[in-house]
Amino acid sequence: MNADLANKLTRVGRKQTLKLTHYGRKSGKPYQVTTWFIVAGDKVFLSTANIQRQWVRNVLKTPRVQLTIAGETYDGQARFLADPAEHERVMRMVLRKYWFVAPFMLLWRLAQRAGLLVDRTGSFEVTPAAANRIASADSVDGA
Known about the structure:
Elements: H1 3-12, E1 17-23, E2 30-36, E3 38-40, E4 43-48, H2 54-61, E5 64-69, E6 72-80, H3 84-97, H4 102-113, E7 122-128, E8 133-134
Antiparallel strand pairs: 1-2, 1-5, 3-4, 4-7, 5-6, 6-7, 6-8
């Protein structure tokens, strides 16, 4: 584990959102989406309620990403967590950080177990490089 990177990520890990730059499947054009995230050591975890979203499909095709958190930008490689145990571990971390969504997640899971909803959730593990630049102060918007 890269301790310096882990310390930097821990510092920004308390933020609520990050900006994820991903690249179009066909065009290669960069796109950004704001999303929730979890930091664990020198890894960043992303989750989604719908694996059919464009950003998810793009990252599956091109796992090279950029994460911008509190003005710090990290280049990284994303890995889709196909193992249900890994995905469930990320979902537990999401619940700890974003505790206010727990009632909705409980209802969601009950509806899935009853066959009313299909589970389309997914998660990624991102291995970032060290912060490669810091954005200007007026571009920091909490992401």
